[in-house]
Structures are given as C-alpha cells and as structure tokens.
C-alpha cells in the first residue's frame, strides 16, 4: 500500500512540475527581439556607445575656458618680525577665482575632438556588429531547436509504424501465416528506434536549454516555435560586397584614429599658448608695531590688511630640446598607422572570403533542399508501395523494413536541409552587413 502511495505522489510531483513549465510561443521575429532585449553583450555595447557620447562631450569642453574657485584659511605661528613690526596671521583667509583659456595647444585639442567623434562612430559600429551576432545566434538556436523537434516527431511516427507492423505480424503468427523470426526482426528494429528517439529527445532538451539561454529565459521554460512550416525560395542575385560590414568600418575608423593620434603626439613638440585671469581677496592679516605720538611718546598700533588683487597672464610654452623624444614618438605613431592600414588590407580579404563562403553555402544549401525534398517524396511513395505489396504478400518483410529505413533517412535529410538553409540565409545577411537592417 505504501509503495502505491509513494508512486502516486511521485507521479503527481512530476505532473505538477511539467505543468509548471512556462510555455513560450515564438516566431523567428519574436525570438530575435527577445534575444536583443536581454543579451548582456548587447547591453554592454550600448553602454559603450553612451560612454563614447560622453567622451565626445568631454573632448569638446577642451575648447572652453575653465573657471575655478579657491578658498583657504591660515593660522601661522609664531608671528613674524618685519622691520620692528610684528606680522600676525591668526585666521588669515584667502578667496579667489581664476579662468584659463587655451589659445593654441599644438593642434591637440582639435585632434582630440576628432578622435572622440571617431570613437563614437566606432562604438556605434560595434553595437551594430553585436546586434548582428546576437541575431545570428538567436536564429541558429531557433532553427536547431525546430530541426531536433521535427526529428523527434518523425521518430515517433516511425515508432508508431513499427508498432503497427508488429501487431500485424503478431496476428499473422498466431494465425499460422507468419514466423517468430519476423517478430524478432521487428522487435530489434523497435529497440533501435527507441534508442534513436531517446537520443533525439535528449538532444531536443539540450537545444531547448540553449534557446532559453539565448533568449534570457529560465531553463525550465518550454519554447514552442511557430515557424514549423519552412518555406524555401531560390536565392536571388547574391551580392559579394562587404561595404556594409561593421567590421570593415571599424578597421577604417581605426586608421582615422591613428591619423589623429599622430597629430596628438606631434602637438607635444609644438608651442602651447594660454591666457589666464584671476581675482583674489585676502583678509584678517594684522600688522602690530609702535609709533610716536605728537608728544614723542611711543604707543602700540595695529593695522588690519584686507584687500583684493587681480591678475591677467599670457603664457607661451616652447619645447626646445628633449633629446629627440617627440620626433621618435611621432615616428612610432606613424608605424601604428601603417599597421592599421595593413590590418585593413588583410582583413578585407578575409571578409571577402567569408562572404563568398556564405554565398556558396546558401547556393549549395538550396540545392540540397531540392534534392532532399525529391528524396523524401520518392521515399514516401516507395514506402506506400511496399506496404501495399507486403499486405498483399508480394514483397518480403525485409523489403518493407528497408523502405521504412529509407523513409526515415530521407525525412531526416529533408529536415536538416531545410533548417540548415535558414541558418545559411541568416549567415549570408550577417556576412554582407544587412542582417536586421
């Protein structure tokens, strides 16, 4: 009795757990949108763009005057002797403001602003690249999950076929019109299908968790793809241009950044001109001493000093001799520019190869879909014919089992070809810089 109660409790527990799984119906577009909303790398790329915006504003402030204020208090001891008088600063205060305006900084301010604008453009391109990568990852996870789910359903249908065949042969054996050897062969096939089905279900669960990870959903979520009827059309004229690739634009902006960095380094060996102005007010300074009155008697006196002073100053700084340090830094920066240009040449070729590979995959993928669909139609027809012939005693069990195996393989090939084509489609758009545009 206790055993039955325990089994019932376990069954109820599994039932509650299964019903607690959240079902999430998804189209391909919704899958992309959800992945883009929750991807951590995309959020970081967006933050990098915001930081680049702030860097641009910070760089622009170098053109503007800087206004600073200052307040200080001093208590000095002992008092100072100044030509027979005593200077006393017990709580002296000083307050002032100053303004500094750079007039010429060797071109570093202008170069710094251009560099900040390049940084903002690079961050925007990096955000585009990350969006495309996330979209491609979401598509791949989505179609992989669809493929493995369809394989599970196909194997379940195959299992039903074998179960039906087993019952037919079992009835024939009981009626003396079949042999036990036929039942054994069907049972062996049923065991093989059960093994394949278990593997497919395990694979489906792994693909489900991979899709949940891509979507930022809990791992107990049950995504249900909506796009199960996959339509494939012949690829139109395919463009090999890489002009829209964010990677190419990032390489071009790297060259532009190196050019501005040369100007920044060169600015260190050019004159620096600035203008500054300020005003300060000081007080609570006392001067104690002795002075003679009209009768010639010496009496003590105290004089308080409270006043303000203004200051305007122009400055010019000219580097004269630093043992060639500045020129060597310029040469080093120019070498960095040449390296960036070499990177552009090399990676442009690699990007072009990647696009051509994507085009080849897409073309081959479409041809595979046509071949797989033809094979699937032929396998279905062959299976139908063999069933009729076996029922009418015109073919052997071996022929029927072979036809069913061919049907399974053809269906598996069709599923793989269709879902792989959709992945190739996404990859082509990513490689040409048009994914999600």
Structural account:
Residues 1-20 have low confidence and may be disordered. The protein has two domains: 22-64 and 105-270 and 319-431, Outer membrane efflux proteins (OEP); 67-104 and 271-318, no CATH class. Helix 4 runs antiparallel to helix 5 (180-215) and helix 6 (246-267) runs antiparallel to helix 7. With 437 residues, it is α+β, with helices and mostly antiparallel strands. Strands 2, 3, 4, 5, 7 and 8 form a six-stranded antiparallel beta sheet that branches. Strands 1-6 form a two-stranded parallel ribbon. The protein has helices at residues 2-20, 28-38, 40-60, 108-174, 180-215, 246-267, 325-391, 397-431, and strands at residues 23-26, 66-75, 80-82, 85-88, 90-104, 222-225, 272-292, 298-317.
Main traits of this protein?
single chain, alpha+beta, Outer membrane efflux proteins (OEP), 2 domains, two-stranded parallel ribbon, 8 helices, 19% strand, elongated
């Amino acid at each position: 009795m206790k055993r039955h109660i325990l089994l019932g409790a376990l069954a109820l527990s599994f039932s509650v757990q299964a019903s607690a799984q959240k079902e999430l119906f998804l189209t391909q577009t919704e899958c992309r949108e959800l992945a883009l909303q929750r991807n951590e790398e995309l959020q970081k790329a967006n933050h990098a763009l915001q930081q680049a915006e702030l860097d641009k504003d910070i760089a622009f402030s170098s053109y503007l005057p800087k206004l600073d204020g200052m307040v200080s208090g001093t208590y000095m001891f002992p008092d100072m002797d100044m030509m027979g008088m005593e200077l006393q600063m017990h709580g002296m205060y000083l307050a002032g403001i100053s303004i500094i305006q750079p007039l010429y900084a060797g071109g570093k301010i202008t170069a710094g602003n251009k560099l900040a604008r390049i940084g903002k453009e690079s961050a925007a391109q990096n955000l585009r690249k990350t969006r495309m990568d996330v979209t491609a990852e979401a598509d791949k996870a989505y179609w992989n999950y669809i493929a493995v789910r369809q394989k599970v359903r196909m194997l379940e249908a195959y299992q039903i076929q074998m179960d039906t065949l087993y019952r037919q042969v079992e009835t024939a054996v009981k009626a003396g019109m079949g042999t036990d050897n036929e039942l054994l062969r069907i049972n062996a096939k049923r065991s093989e299908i059960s093994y394949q089905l278990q593997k497919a279900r395990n694979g489906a669960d792994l693909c489900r968790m991979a899709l949940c990870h891509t979507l930022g959903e809990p791992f107990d979520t049950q995504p249900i793809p909506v796009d199960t009827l996959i339509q494939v059309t012949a690829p139109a004229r395919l463009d090999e241009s890489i002009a829209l690739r964010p990677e190419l634009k990032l390489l071009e902006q790297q060259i532009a950044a190196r050019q501005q960095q040369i100007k920044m380094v060169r600015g260190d060996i050019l004159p620096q001109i600035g203008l500054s102005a300020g005003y300060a007010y000081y007080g609570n300074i006392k001067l104690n001493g002795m002075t003679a009155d009209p009768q010639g008697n010496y009496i003590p006196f105290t004089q308080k000093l409270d006043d303000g002073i203004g200051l305007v100053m122009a400055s010019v700084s000219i580097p004269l001799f630093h043992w060639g340090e500045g020129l060597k830094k310029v040469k080093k920066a120019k070498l960095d520019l040449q390296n960036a240009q070499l990177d552009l040449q090399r990676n442009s070729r690699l990007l072009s190869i990647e696009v051509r590979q994507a085009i080849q995959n897409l073309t081959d993928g479409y041809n595979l879909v046509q071949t797989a669909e033809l094979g699937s139609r032929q396998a279905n027809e062959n299976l139908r014919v063999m069933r009729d012939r076996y029922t009418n005693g015109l073919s052997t069990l071996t022929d029927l089992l072979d036809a069913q195996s061919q049907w399974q393989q053809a269906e598996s090939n069709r599923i793989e070809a269709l879902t792989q084509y959709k992945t190739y489609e996404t990859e082509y758009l990513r490689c040409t810089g048009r994914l999600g545009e």
